[in-house]
Amino acid sequence: MTSKLIVKVFQRWLWIPCLLLVWTLFAKFVHLGTWSFPSPWFTFEKWWWLFKNGTLIKDIGSSLFHVGYGFTLSALIAVSLGTLMGWNRKMFEYLNPFLNLIRPTPPAAWLPLVVFVWGIGLLPGILLVIYGSFFPILLNTINGVQNVEKRYVNAALTLGLGKRRLMCDIVLPAAFPSILIGLRMGFGFAWMVLIIAELIAVQSGLGYMILLSVTTLEPESIIAGMITIGVVGLGLDQFFRVLIDKYILKWQKGIVI
Amino acid sequence: MAEGNRDMTHSKEIIRVTDLVKSFPKKDRGEPLKVLDGIHLSISEGEFVSILGPSGCGKSTFLHILAGLDRQDSGQVFLDDKLITGPGPDHTMIFQDYSLFPWMTVEKNIELGLKATGIQESERKAISRNYIDLVHLGGFENHYPHELSGGMKQRVAIARGFALNPRVLFMDEPFGALDAQTRVMLQEELIRIFTSTHKTIVFVTHNVSEAVFLSDRIVVCTKRPMQVKEIFQVSIERPRDRFGIPFNEFCKQVAQLLNA
Amino acid sequence: MGKKKFKINRGIRTIILFFVLWELTSQLGLLESFHIPSPSTVFKTFFLLLVEGIHVGELGRVTMFKMARDSLSRVCVGFFLALAIGFPIGFWMGWNKTVKAFLENMYTVLRPLPPFAWVPLSLFFLGPGNLTSFFVIWIGAFFPISLNTLSAVENVEKRYIRAALTLGLKRRQLIWEVVIPAALPGIFTGIRIGLGMAWGLVVAAELVAVKTGLGALIWRADLVMRPDIILAGIIFIGMIAYGLEQGILWLQQNLLRWQKGLVI
After folding, report:
1. Most buried one in A48, A227, A256, C141, CB count within 10 A?
2. What chain B residue is nearest to C181 in terms of C-alpha separation?
3. What strand order describes the sheet that includes B200-205?
4. CB atoms within 10 A of CB B1
């Protein structure tokens, strides 16, 4: 029995030493130009140094601020609009084709325009985050609202619920799992888009930091920054995942009415 | 064209099952669930044998083991004196859900198994056309499964199985998903094909009249854990009259034993 | 039939309303402070770019098609590389549980890193230019393709495998005639997402790291203060994005015509 457990633990965490090994070997043998690929140890050292002198914290803070601001705004607009469009067939028909025209355009394409109008700084980052996260949230909200089972709505109407109660107590809760999924997806895009914006048009944050490290010729910082970006992004995504598990699982247990 | 009761005593034994045991490990309580409790069976070449038992008794598991799609805990299965260790075209199975490949036409579905044995394309086409006609699906060669009704899909599955020219054909409640009328129709088709091809068939069902209509022998099974309760020899001449008295008397006998 | 026509009209009305409002506010001078040109100017520039080409600063005289061709060829290289590596790996992981267990944790590490975050590293070691763009596109498309292939192969219904085995299929036939066709819908989803990412990334990469292509065009247009070119470029980028998406969907619908009746 214990041998099986050991194998399992082994399988789960084996990638860490393997990855470090591959990385160290890569660092030893890869030379591009005059620079060799930074080794894990120097990278971690650099990471710790950045952390200790506060610059990393500052950059993380900037990025979190940008993404939080943009994402919250986007979520508010997208959920409201999505509920409206999901509920009201007319509104859907009015707005959906127009939105569908805009949707395929990649977020990065809007950057030059945003920079042209508002210049480099905070705003391009936030605006792009809003654009990037908007559509996943919107589409999943519409989907969630549209798919609220008719029988729940009918039951509520039979009980004499007014429109507001209907919305707040029946429709939105029923659509909530879908909305949560959309929020998680939207956040993933928000983080992705944020990095693009910071790299190009915003003068602060983790994206900017790793770009700067190119010009200051510090490859260890680049990787240290990348790891931070990945970890923070993953951590926030896990937050959504926990929320989803909690809410959707809680529901599914009792969903057979 | 009455097919007389075939005398099986001189036919070669084609399948031998000795002391088959199987348990499923239970996840929650840890105590394994015994499904097959020592099954012995002998089947002769050219026989139509039904495995009859209540739902959930393990007859499907039994058939899967015979076909090599599942593994037993102990005991052996012999096909022509050779151990069955895995699935294969000479002991192929037909499933209740047809399991036709939806991305292939009727013809391609039937040809697929033939392709595996290395038969050339022209010959494959000829064989598949032959079996398509046999199941009366001429004209539907290039249709996709989703364009066919349930009964037609099962006929394709039957054609696919027979086209392999197997030593034995296993059928796992093949008509279970069909409505009563289609079911009766397909039973009659199956008997027709059986008598013209002389294939050995092992057929699982929980329907008494189906078993009596189709089989030479009926193996009646107990509830889980499954054992052989009794084996009936069906001596009514074919074609069998479902509404006739001997048929119904026989059904009563079998049903009584099944429910005992 | 009359009802359907009515429905289309509603959406079109909104779009027309949008353009009319835009034109109006522009003509009234309300958009001056934002420096946003009118739709008529943008469309004029759009067609000019298509037909004759416009001189855009350092780029010289460029046409939309030439720029698009540059971007698309980069996407081709990066995307097909991602397909060539991602599809077999995804398949293998879906097919073989040990391989999956081994590789999936590496995936968990690398996947949450946004593809564009690789740009500085690759700029440092591969330098600005096409190599960086190939790499970033490759990374962006690799994960959707391999993960969707993995999931598609894993979720091939067991009954198809069972039926194939009982018909006597050996491994090669099993994979090519049963598993891959059964997994094709999921694989296509991965391709569609991967292609979308690839296109988005090439445009972004061209804003920073490369000198030609549609992304470079709209970035230069910003530098030479030509918002009409920026908007014309954005429209064209969006059109290509739409076309690519629809193209894959069309391909999927035609290759997988049997999917219509998948509810067997």
Report:
1. C141
2. B103
3. B93-94, B168-172, B200-205, B48-52, B217-221, B228-233
4. 5
Contact residues for A22 (Cβ-Cβ < 8 A; gap 6+):
none
C20 to A190, C17, C32: CA distances (angstroms): 31, 5, 17
Enumerate the β-bridge partners of residue B43: B15
The answer to whether the CB of C112 falls within 8 A of the CB of A232 is no
A106 with C230: Cβ contact below 8 A: no
Sign of CA dihedral C58, C62, C66, C68: positive
Q: So what's the ipTM on this one?
A: 0.87
In chain B, which residues have their Cβ closer than 8 Å to the Cβ of C156? none
**What is the dotted CATH code of the domain comprising C40-261?**
1.10.3720.10
| DSSP letters spanning B130-192 | HHHHHTT-TT-TT--GGGS-HHHHHHHHHHHHHHT--SEEEEESTTTTS-HHHHHHHHHHHHH
Kind plus residue range of the DSSP H or E element containing B74:
strand B74-79
For chain A, domain boundaries: 38-251
DSSP state of B73: S
Q: How far apart are the first and last CA of chain C?
A: 31
Report how far residue A2's alpha carbon sits from residue A10's, in angstroms, rounded to the nearest whole number.
12
Q: Distance between CA A167 and CA A1 in Å, rounded?
A: 53
- Residue in the block written with tokens 């994960």: C143
Per-residue pLDDT of chain B (260 residues; tens, 9 = 90+): 333 444 555 578 888 999 899 988 877 777 888 889 889 999 999 999 999 998 888 899 999 999 999 999 999 999 998 899 899 999 999 999 989 999 999 999 999 989 888 888 899 999 999 999 999 998 999 999 999 999 999 999 999 999 999 999 999 999 998 999 999 999 999 999 999 999 999 999 999 999 999 999 999 999 888 888 888 888 888 888 899 999 999 999 999 988 87
The conformational region for residue A54 under phi > 0 = left, psi -120 to 50 = alpha, else beta, is left
Copy the structure tokens of residue B57. Answer: 């008794």
The CATH superfamily of A38-251 is MetI-like (1.10.3720.10)
Is the Cβ–Cβ distance between B37 and B23 less than 8 Å?
A: no
Determine the Cα–Cα distance for residues B115 and C62; give it in Å rounded to an integer: 56
Q: What is the pTM of this model?
A: 0.86
Element containing residue A133 per DSSP (H, E): helix A122-146
Residue B99 with chain C: CB contacts under 8 Å: 159-160, 162-163
Q: What part of C 199-218 touches A (C-beta under 8 Å)?
A: 199-201, 203-204, 207-208, 214-215, 218
